[in-house]
Amino acid sequence: MKTSNFFLIALMFAILAVGCTEEEGPIGPAGADGTNGTNGNDGTNGNDGTDGYGAITATDQAAYDAADGMRGGILYDNWTSTEAAISGIPAEVTAKKEFFRCKACHAWDGLGKSASYINRSGTATRPNCATSDLRSYVGSHNIKETFNSIKNMGGRLKSTSSYSDVMPDYSTLISDNDIWDLVKYLFEETVNVDLLYVYQTSGIYPTGTITYSSIGKDGVAATGDTYISSNCISCHGTDGTTLDLGGKTLGKFGRVKPNELWHKVKFGQLGSSMGGFGSTQQELKDLYTALQDNVKYPD
């Protein structure tokens, strides 16, 4: 009897427990999102001097150190000249040399169409001038980036059908040593013309105009006269009128073409007996100042 009562009580308790089971509560708030996986690295750029494209190796530095910037000035003027001493120049190049000269696009001052060549348009025998400013380029790029930019593998080829404003593929035309000479010229031997004179432009390429003032800036005329006596009068005469420089005397050339004269004085007049004097910036300023005297050095 006691056992039956105990069993009955236990059974009733089990039924009560099942019937009183609580329902599931509301769903709690969502947990925080998991962190995103890291993005893959961007691919390296191919030609803007970043991500190793312009990294200077020991070999590059040695080639630059051994380069001749003065010869680079000759190459910049006309690498097809006798003075440049480059052999095997293709006939397509000699036929229209202006399309392959650095100076033809970038101008004597390296400023392209923005300064002295603002009114020098392209023709059937020469390209339009470059929009790039070599002085700014060199100021923001290293020697290897500049080398790569000049070499320009994949640029315009030398075929007669490709004469255009596009930069030539110099990797097919000149050697790496030649290119390093050009790089050294740009970094060490070219002259910042802002230190020689003041220029002002008006209008836009190719019909703009340029005017020069303060030619020689703070140069010393008497020192320039001495420089002329030592280096120039044997060919140009004491007053600079002996030689005809494209319809100009030495004095007039210095007054109307200061953008070009410095290059001829420092690196020479190619194709003539006039070699370069390797003149310093101060010597050029003194020379320029002296040539502003149109009584001593008339038109």
Q: What characteristics describe this protein?
A:
Cytochrome Bc1 Complex, Chain D, domain 2; 2 domains; mainly alpha; 299 residues; two-stranded antiparallel ribbon
Outline the structure in words:
40% of the residues lie in helices and 3% in strands. It has a two-stranded antiparallel sheet with strand order 1-2. It folds into two domains: 58-190, no CATH class; 198-291, Orthogonal Bundle (Cytochrome Bc1 Complex, Chain D, domain 2), CATH 1.10.760. The model is unreliable at 1-25 and 37-51 (pLDDT under 50). The chain has 13 helices and two strands; from the N terminus they run H-H-H-H-H-H-H-H-E-E-H-H-H-H-H. The longest helix is centred in the first third of the chain and has 18 residues, at 2-19. The protein is mainly alpha-helical and 299 residues long.
What number of structural domains do the residues give?
2
* Largest pleated sheet: 2 strands, antiparallel
Sequence of secondary-structure elements: HHHHHHHHEEHHHHH
Helix content: 40-55%
